Amino acid sequence: MYKNKLYRTALLSSPIMATFELSPIFFLQAYGYPLNFWSALTTFTILTMAMWGVNIYVINIWVKSGSKNNTEWYALSYIFTLLLFALFWVVLHFSPEMGDNGNRPSIIFPIINILTLNTIILIISNATIVRSKKEQVDKELAELKIKNLEAEQQALVGQMQPHFLFNALSTLSSIISTDPDLAKRYVISLSDFLRYTISAHEHVLISLSEEFKFTQDYIELQKLRFEDSFYCSLTVPQEQISQYQIPVYALQSLVENAFKHNSFSEEKPLKVSIELKADLLIVSNNKMSKPISLDGERKGVGLKNLNKRYQLIVGKDINIKDTQTEYTVTLKLIQTTP
């Protein structure tokens, strides 16, 4: 991972560093050597890239050795760089352009110059490696966080299933003695409904179309029980329904919540509305609150779980509007990935 960054940094920085290296040009010109600026810039750019190549090679040796001591890396870098410079100096020293001139320049300033340049390369390399390692750690932490979130979401979904099954069996027990035919139809519908939950439980997100069909099956179960005491209006454009995803059981749990916390009858029926507006799914119902029961402390468990799941997946809370006459929950849908 760090190699690509080092290669990219080497290509971008070499011309800039080469300009810094050109300072010896003026030193050489003072001794009367005819040097062209552009040819010198090209030469020193190649030298800088060679120094980068040496340092990257040294870094590879250092990484493969498993050493954690940066001193070894730095020592090797300076040794190899000095060897490269010695080769370069010999070639330059015995070049035809300089061979007949008796005033040879001192080697001290170029050595200082090249060691300074190598120090800059080391600083940049070290910063690049540290940043690369940090990005790798951040990536691993993000992956671990996602896995933890998925596990937590599965746990929250797991809490919801027993809730529904308990309510469904309670409903069945209340009608089995009074209307056996209705109870039989209810069992068949419940069987189809539970068959879906077996596969849905394995998912964190599900398409809105699947969740909508699942919720419609749930609504049919309730209609078998409550008949004219319950009405549901659906405003969900079919051309939009395939564009979004939703946490599994999210819509169904909101409809279930309306049944759990309202007291209704044929004279005062429960009215649930499901509406899709752009990327918002709005579920509302009229309020006819039940008296506080012995199980009152568990009231709102489903919504709390749903809200927690939305915090984990979407990063925000669900929107709840609670008035004296109406209860409305708005869910932000997740765009389906193309």
Q: What strand line-up does the widest sheet have?
A: 2-4-5-7-6
Summed up, the domain count is 2
Which percent band covers the strand fraction?
Answer: 5-15%
* Largest sheet properties: 5 strands, mixed
Low-pLDDT runs of 5+ residues are 294-298
Could you name the key traits of this structure?
single chain; 338 residues; alpha+beta; Heat Shock Protein 90; 2 domains; three-stranded antiparallel beta sheet; 12% strand; rod-shaped
Task: Give your account of this protein's structure.
The chain has 338 residues and is of the alpha+beta class. The protein folds into two domains: 2-140, no CATH class; 176-335, Heat Shock Protein 90 (2-Layer Sandwich). Helix content is 65%, strand content 12%. It is rod-shaped. The two termini are 29 Å apart.
